[in-house]
Design brief:
Blueprint lengths: L2 H11 L2 H8 L4 H8 L10 E4 L9 H18 L8 E5 L5 H14 L4 E4 L5 H10 L4 E5 L8 E7 L8 H12 L16 E4 L1 H11 L14 E4 L6 H10 L5 E3 L25 H10 L3 E5 L6 E7 L2 E5 L1 H14 L9 E6 L5 H8 L3 E5 L3 H11 L6 E7 L3 E4 L8 H17 L4 H12 L1 E10 L2 H17 L2 H4 L3 E6 L13 E5 L4 E6 L5 E10 L2 H19 L5
Parallel strand pairs: 2-3, 2-4, 3-6, 7-8, 7-9, 12-13, 12-14
Antiparallel strand pairs: 1-5, 4-5, 9-10, 10-11, 14-15, 16-20, 17-18, 18-19, 19-20
Helix pairs in contact: 1-2, 1-3, 4-5, 4-7, 8-9, 9-14, 11-12
Amino acid sequence: MGYKETYRDWLSWADESTKEELSSLHDEKEIEDRFYRDLAFGTAGLRGIMGAGTNRMNRYTVARATRGLSDYLHALYPEELSRGVVIAYDSRNHSPEFAKEAAAVLTAAGIPVKIFKELEPIPVLSFSVRHFHALSGIVITASHNPPEYNGYKVYGEDGGQLVPAKADVLTEYVEKVKDLARIPDEVDEKLITWLGEDVVDLFIDTIFKESRYHGNPPALKVVYTPLHGSGNVPVRKILAKAGFKDLHIVKEQEMPDGNFPTVSSPNPENADALSLGIRLGMEMGADIVIGTDPDSDRIGAAVRNGSDFTLISGNQMGALLTYFLLSTGKDRLTPASTIVKTVVTGELSADIAKSFHVKVAETLTGFKYIGEKITEWEHDSSHDFVFGFEESYGYLAGTHARDKDAVVTAMVICEMAAYFKEKGKTLSQVLAALYETYGFYYDKSLSYTLKGLEGAHRIASIMEEARAMDMKSLIPEIVETLDFEKGIDGLPRENVLKYRLANGGWFAIRPSGTEPKIKFYYSLKGKDETEAVRLFERYRNLLEKRFGLQAI
């Protein structure tokens, strides 16, 4: 059926509120965008704008994905279904309803469900899948996207998001579900177990094992904002257990709110997300400001720099944490010790690790690949996971989860700041010293939003153009081109282009897997910041002009 026929079909069977919403639509482009395709189910699951339609997040698209998951589990684990599925959700609008819809579809298919009574972070879900030996996990979240979005992430039995080989199989089952009007979703209460605070406390006790100070750190004044998300309770619990008594919460952003009224987007990568925290930090004379996103897998920070605060980028924090964990944990290091970063993560952390004789492994973009390495190395003595991170503010210390964890990272960041404060240094000064030792890197990522069907075609054409052209004629310093779609260093194929430069820097291009964006990543090395930034501006201007792009 075409989009018009699908639209009329929904009007014939959907619930009354959905029919009312659809009947109010008069913009043909809006109707087309809602129905020209099914909301894509990929390696990250579902993510999209909430609303009625096949290309939107709603109870029917959630039910479709969950029916596909239940068919997948029946096919792959017919004798183990009693292990069930764990479900969590964050603070976004409709997250609790979508979680309950998923639970209803699973129990209608005879699969037991453990579902949290309250909103919980992604790392708690990942930990719980492993703790309960569940077959799978589901999180209802759209991470740090704007308020109109929600999403649906699927986790495997190892507690990590599904990698493509498994996600592709699951996608086939989801795509076979055609009749959204007749998906069984009558909940079987006998198959539902409600999870509560005891599971969260067990998670807190487990991640506390990563503490360097075991509850007795040097004094540190901390400001924390959960950005209206799920981090509020667990982050405060772990910081209290870790001994940080001088903690101040941004009250305006303390309570869960899916409208995220105090920020343009609840993304700790954005400077304005931490602006209220920085204001409170100035008032309180804080040493550090930290903020977690709605599902509390990402964390951002601003650190004391004289009388002001400096925002720390994802790459910079990864480098600082690498240095702190390795320098304070030398007694734990072995010839197998390894940090893991992605192919679009900056090089400073790798240089630091190598100076400690620690191995560096690279994965494709997405923490699912880092989680996959942790699981793989459980049976491989040649590597011992120490720390993993990606440039988009996601970090993991410990092996309690298989996804990025802003809760444990909040503790480690605060312990790091306290450690260096006791030595008379701010994290800004430590970072400057790392640049002095290892060379200056300017790391920056730019996203270009191209919405709708036309935008999707434009993103695809940009990647085609980049592959077809001689990029060296535009940027002569290129010494190597890596096309990850062809398979590089044994990694799975992925639509990423990376260009290595003569001085050790690089830039890369990839489409977002979850948003209508194409991303350009830069890790540029210079003798100082001025030179590196000048290189960035030059390359950025050349590439934007070549591909007709403008950063927002």
